[in-house]
Design goal:
Length: 188
């Protein structure tokens, strides 16, 4: 897999995993307190090659993603579902625990954040789809996030994330169809 962009990761173990899976270059943030020197390296990489932010699906990873996105416009984002990042022993969560195939798939499905949304997703549609306000909403959101590859998101942030990554009504409906079909198979 040939990736032109520089991948922003949290630490050395993530670098090892990304390089093993793709051979791509990385910049390590060394934790969620991203310093100005690291931001300058990311800015430079963005100007020369482009940047993909690829952090763990946990609070520190989301914090790093938000900091980089705020300080370095137009970066791309790649996400791994939480279940792909759990250590084999069940202790630990991170990109370093993901398979090479999962890493390659995530990096092949990047998004660029847009300040201008293509279309608004009505809140009523999210309620109707049982993505908010229902006992199974969390489970449905987690699976929807995997299908659309937008990263795990809570109910409050779902609408914003869908719009931020320009997920159209058609894309949402297609993913919901898959989700509903999967649920019907497990109910039988």
């Amino acid at each position: 897999m040939n990736i032109e962009e520089v991948i922003v990761v949290e630490g050395k173990s993530d670098t090892v995993a990304v390089r093993r899976a793709t051979g791509a270059d990385t910049i390590e943030t060394n934790g969620s307190a991203v310093n100005e020197m690291t931001i300058e390296r990311i800015r430079h990489a963005q100007k020369t090659r482009g940047v993909i932010v690829f952090t763990d699906p946990d609070f520190p990873g989301r914090r790093i993603r938000a900091i980089v996105e705020e300080k370095v416009p137009d970066v791309k984002h790649a996400f791994l579902p939480k279940k792909e990042t759990i250590a084999k022993n069940g202790r630990g969560l991170g990109i370093e625990h993901a398979s090479d195939e999962a890493i390659r798939h995530a990096l092949a499905s990047v998004y660029t954040v847009s300040k201008h949304t293509i279309e608004e997703i009505p809140m009523a549609r999210l309620l109707e789809a049982r993505l908010l306000g229902h006992e199974d909403s969390r489970k449905r959101r987690e699976r929807l996030s995997e299908l659309l590859q937008i990263g795990q998101v809570n109910g409050k942030g779902l609408k914003k994330r869908l719009e931020m990554f320009r997920i159209s009504q058609i894309q949402l409906d297609e993913a919901l169809t898959v989700l509903d079909e999967e649920e019907m198979k497990t109910d039988v």
